[in-house]
Amino acid sequence: MKRRGLVIAIDGTVGTGKTTTARRVAERLGYRHLDTGAMYRAVTLAATRRGVAPEDAAALEALLATSTIDLDSGRGRVLLDGQDISEAIRQPEITRRAGAYADVPLVRHFLVAQQQQWGQWGGVVAEGRDTAAVVFPDAELKIALVADLDERADRRHRELTAKGVGITLEQVRSDIQTRDREDAERDYGGTSAAAEIVEIDTTRMTLEDQVDYVVALACQRGA
Asked: Is residue 108 part of a domain?
Protein backbone atom coordinates (compact mmCIF):
# COMPACT_ATOMS: atom_id res chain seq x y z
CA MET A 1 0.00 0.00 0.00
CA LYS A 2 1.35 3.42 -0.95
CA ARG A 3 2.26 5.84 1.83
CA ARG A 4 -0.22 8.67 2.22
CA GLY A 5 2.15 11.30 3.60
CA LEU A 6 4.66 12.01 6.33
CA VAL A 7 4.76 10.81 9.89
CA ILE A 8 5.06 13.89 12.11
CA ALA A 9 5.93 13.22 15.76
CA ILE A 10 5.29 15.99 18.29
CA ASP A 11 6.67 15.69 21.81
CA GLY A 12 6.30 18.22 24.58
CA THR A 13 5.66 18.76 28.27
CA VAL A 14 2.25 19.56 29.78
CA GLY A 15 0.89 22.95 28.73
CA THR A 16 3.04 23.48 25.65
CA GLY A 17 0.03 23.08 23.37
CA LYS A 18 1.05 19.81 21.75
CA THR A 19 -2.40 18.23 21.59
CA THR A 20 -4.20 21.20 20.05
CA THR A 21 -1.26 21.98 17.79
CA ALA A 22 -1.10 18.38 16.56
CA ARG A 23 -4.84 18.27 15.92
CA ARG A 24 -4.83 21.53 13.94
CA VAL A 25 -1.72 20.60 11.97
CA ALA A 26 -3.44 17.36 11.04
CA GLU A 27 -6.51 19.28 9.91
CA ARG A 28 -4.44 21.67 7.80
CA LEU A 29 -2.54 18.85 6.10
CA GLY A 30 -5.47 16.46 5.76
CA TYR A 31 -3.69 13.96 8.03
CA ARG A 32 -4.98 11.87 10.92
CA HIS A 33 -4.29 12.98 14.48
CA LEU A 34 -2.92 10.34 16.85
CA ASP A 35 -3.07 11.37 20.51
CA THR A 36 -0.99 8.64 22.16
CA GLY A 37 -1.39 10.16 25.61
CA ALA A 38 -5.17 9.87 25.32
CA MET A 39 -4.78 6.12 24.84
CA TYR A 40 -2.88 5.79 28.13
CA ARG A 41 -5.46 7.96 29.85
CA ALA A 42 -8.21 5.74 28.45
CA VAL A 43 -6.54 2.66 29.93
CA THR A 44 -6.17 4.53 33.23
CA LEU A 45 -9.84 5.47 33.26
CA ALA A 46 -10.92 1.91 32.40
CA ALA A 47 -8.67 0.46 35.12
CA THR A 48 -9.87 3.01 37.67
CA ARG A 49 -13.51 2.21 36.94
CA ARG A 50 -12.89 -1.52 37.30
CA GLY A 51 -10.64 -1.21 40.33
CA VAL A 52 -7.59 -2.65 38.55
CA ALA A 53 -4.29 -1.58 40.10
CA PRO A 54 -1.17 -0.92 37.94
CA GLU A 55 0.69 -3.79 39.62
CA ASP A 56 -2.04 -6.36 38.88
CA ALA A 57 -0.62 -7.71 35.61
CA ALA A 58 -3.22 -10.45 35.12
CA ALA A 59 -6.15 -8.08 35.59
CA LEU A 60 -4.52 -5.47 33.35
CA GLU A 61 -3.98 -8.03 30.60
CA ALA A 62 -7.65 -9.03 30.81
CA LEU A 63 -8.67 -5.37 30.78
CA LEU A 64 -6.68 -4.67 27.62
CA ALA A 65 -8.05 -7.78 25.92
CA THR A 66 -11.65 -6.80 26.59
CA SER A 67 -11.49 -3.02 26.07
CA THR A 68 -11.74 -1.15 22.79
CA ILE A 69 -10.09 2.27 22.48
CA ASP A 70 -10.95 4.30 19.38
CA LEU A 71 -9.66 7.72 18.39
CA ASP A 72 -12.14 9.73 16.34
CA SER A 73 -9.44 12.08 15.07
CA GLY A 74 -11.80 14.04 12.86
CA ARG A 75 -13.82 15.17 15.88
CA GLY A 76 -11.08 15.00 18.48
CA ARG A 77 -12.98 12.39 20.47
CA VAL A 78 -11.73 9.38 22.43
CA LEU A 79 -14.05 6.40 22.76
CA LEU A 80 -13.81 3.57 25.29
CA ASP A 81 -16.03 0.64 24.37
CA GLY A 82 -18.09 3.03 22.26
CA GLN A 83 -18.52 5.64 25.02
CA ASP A 84 -17.17 9.17 24.54
CA ILE A 85 -14.63 9.70 27.34
CA SER A 86 -12.90 12.75 25.84
CA GLU A 87 -13.62 14.92 28.89
CA ALA A 88 -13.40 12.20 31.53
CA ILE A 89 -9.79 11.35 30.69
CA ARG A 90 -8.72 14.99 31.13
CA GLN A 91 -9.81 15.20 34.75
CA PRO A 92 -6.92 15.90 37.17
CA GLU A 93 -7.32 12.60 39.04
CA ILE A 94 -6.88 10.60 35.81
CA THR A 95 -3.94 12.77 34.81
CA ARG A 96 -2.24 12.03 38.14
CA ARG A 97 -2.77 8.26 37.83
CA ALA A 98 -1.89 7.87 34.15
CA GLY A 99 1.86 7.70 34.69
CA ALA A 100 1.59 4.61 36.87
CA TYR A 101 -0.21 2.70 34.12
CA ALA A 102 1.99 4.12 31.36
CA ASP A 103 5.02 2.69 33.15
CA VAL A 104 3.70 -0.88 32.97
CA PRO A 105 5.54 -2.70 30.11
CA LEU A 106 2.44 -4.75 29.29
CA VAL A 107 0.40 -1.61 28.72
CA ARG A 108 3.15 0.13 26.76
CA HIS A 109 3.77 -2.79 24.40
CA PHE A 110 0.06 -3.19 23.76
CA LEU A 111 -0.56 0.48 22.96
CA VAL A 112 2.66 1.11 21.04
CA ALA A 113 1.78 -1.75 18.70
CA GLN A 114 -1.60 -0.11 18.03
CA GLN A 115 -0.01 3.30 17.52
CA GLN A 116 2.55 1.97 15.04
CA GLN A 117 -0.26 0.33 13.10
CA TRP A 118 -1.96 3.69 12.87
CA GLY A 119 1.10 5.33 11.36
CA GLN A 120 2.50 2.60 9.13
CA TRP A 121 1.22 4.25 5.93
CA GLY A 122 2.06 7.82 6.90
CA GLY A 123 -0.28 10.78 6.79
CA VAL A 124 -0.39 11.07 10.56
CA VAL A 125 0.48 13.66 13.19
CA ALA A 126 1.30 11.75 16.38
CA GLU A 127 1.82 13.44 19.71
CA GLY A 128 2.98 12.18 23.07
CA ARG A 129 6.04 11.84 25.26
CA ASP A 130 7.74 9.00 23.36
CA THR A 131 6.36 9.29 19.83
CA ALA A 132 9.66 10.33 18.24
CA ALA A 133 12.03 8.08 20.17
CA VAL A 134 9.98 4.88 20.55
CA VAL A 135 6.78 4.81 18.52
CA PHE A 136 8.00 6.43 15.31
CA PRO A 137 11.82 6.62 15.42
CA ASP A 138 11.86 7.02 11.62
CA ALA A 139 9.38 9.90 11.54
CA GLU A 140 10.20 12.41 8.80
CA LEU A 141 9.56 15.36 11.13
CA LYS A 142 10.18 15.37 14.88
CA ILE A 143 9.07 18.33 16.97
CA ALA A 144 9.68 19.10 20.67
CA LEU A 145 7.52 21.84 22.18
CA VAL A 146 8.77 23.62 25.29
CA ALA A 147 7.54 26.56 27.38
CA ASP A 148 8.15 28.24 30.74
CA LEU A 149 6.58 26.51 33.74
CA ASP A 150 4.50 29.52 34.80
CA GLU A 151 3.08 29.92 31.31
CA ARG A 152 2.25 26.22 31.09
CA ALA A 153 0.53 26.24 34.49
CA ASP A 154 -1.52 29.28 33.54
CA ARG A 155 -2.62 27.71 30.24
CA ARG A 156 -3.58 24.44 31.88
CA HIS A 157 -5.44 26.18 34.70
CA ARG A 158 -7.46 28.27 32.23
CA GLU A 159 -8.27 25.14 30.23
CA LEU A 160 -9.50 23.22 33.29
CA THR A 161 -11.44 26.18 34.68
CA ALA A 162 -13.19 26.63 31.34
CA LYS A 163 -14.34 23.01 31.62
CA GLY A 164 -15.73 23.59 35.10
CA VAL A 165 -12.96 21.80 36.99
CA GLY A 166 -12.41 23.34 40.41
CA ILE A 167 -8.65 23.46 40.96
CA THR A 168 -6.22 26.16 42.04
CA LEU A 169 -3.39 27.51 39.93
CA GLU A 170 -0.96 26.39 42.63
CA GLN A 171 -2.24 22.80 42.44
CA VAL A 172 -1.99 22.82 38.65
CA ARG A 173 1.58 24.10 38.87
CA SER A 174 2.46 21.38 41.40
CA ASP A 175 0.86 18.68 39.23
CA ILE A 176 2.86 19.84 36.21
CA GLN A 177 6.11 19.83 38.17
CA THR A 178 5.37 16.26 39.27
CA ARG A 179 4.63 15.21 35.69
CA ASP A 180 7.82 16.89 34.46
CA ARG A 181 9.88 15.03 37.06
CA GLU A 182 8.25 11.68 36.29
CA ASP A 183 8.70 12.13 32.54
CA ALA A 184 12.36 13.08 32.98
CA GLU A 185 12.99 9.91 34.99
CA ARG A 186 11.36 7.57 32.46
CA ASP A 187 13.43 5.58 30.00
CA TYR A 188 11.51 3.56 27.45
CA GLY A 189 14.58 2.50 25.53
CA GLY A 190 14.33 4.72 22.47
CA THR A 191 16.50 7.65 21.54
CA SER A 192 16.47 10.41 18.96
CA ALA A 193 19.54 12.37 17.99
CA ALA A 194 19.25 16.02 18.99
CA ALA A 195 19.91 17.05 15.40
CA GLU A 196 16.74 15.22 14.30
CA ILE A 197 14.48 17.21 16.61
CA VAL A 198 13.20 20.75 15.99
CA GLU A 199 12.64 22.46 19.34
CA ILE A 200 9.98 25.16 19.44
CA ASP A 201 9.58 27.43 22.47
CA THR A 202 5.86 28.24 22.63
CA THR A 203 6.01 30.54 25.68
CA ARG A 204 5.30 33.68 23.66
CA MET A 205 3.69 32.10 20.63
CA THR A 206 -0.01 32.03 19.81
CA LEU A 207 -1.57 28.72 18.90
CA GLU A 208 -1.85 29.81 15.28
CA ASP A 209 1.85 30.71 15.26
CA GLN A 210 2.69 27.20 16.45
CA VAL A 211 0.48 25.57 13.85
CA ASP A 212 1.83 27.73 11.03
CA TYR A 213 5.40 26.94 12.01
CA VAL A 214 4.90 23.17 12.13
CA VAL A 215 2.94 23.14 8.87
CA ALA A 216 5.72 25.12 7.17
CA LEU A 217 8.32 22.61 8.41
CA ALA A 218 6.17 19.73 7.19
CA CYS A 219 5.79 21.31 3.75
CA GLN A 220 9.57 21.70 3.53
CA ARG A 221 9.79 17.94 3.99
CA GLY A 222 7.28 17.16 1.30
CA ALA A 223 3.92 17.09 3.08
From this structure: yes
1 belongs to a structural domain: no
Q: How much is the CA Rg of the chain, to the nearest whole Å?
A: 17
Is residue 72 assigned to a domain?
yes
Amino acid letter, 12: G
User: What are the beta bridge partners of residue 84?
Assistant: 79
pTM of the model: 0.89
Q: Give domain status of residue 222, yes or no.
A: no
- Summarize pLDDT for 46-57 with one digit per residue, the tens: 999 999 999 999
Domain coverage including residue 142: 7-211
pLDDT, one tens digit per residue, over 118-148 is 999 999 999 988 898 889 999 999 999 999 9
Sign of CA dihedral 123, 139, 14, 155: negative
- Contact criterion met (CB below 8 Å) for 200 and 144: yes
> Tell me, what CATH number does 62's domain have?
3.40.50.300
DSSP 93: H
Q: Are 177 and 156 in contact (CB under 8 A)?
A: no
Mean pLDDT by 10 residues, the chain (223 residues): 86 89 95 94 96 97 95 82 94 91 94 93 91 91 95 94 92 93 73 74 94 97 88
- Phi/psi-derived region of residue 143, left when phi > 0, alpha when psi is between -120 and 50, beta in every other case: beta
**Domains: count for the chain:** 1
Pair 124, 204: CB distance under 8 Å: no
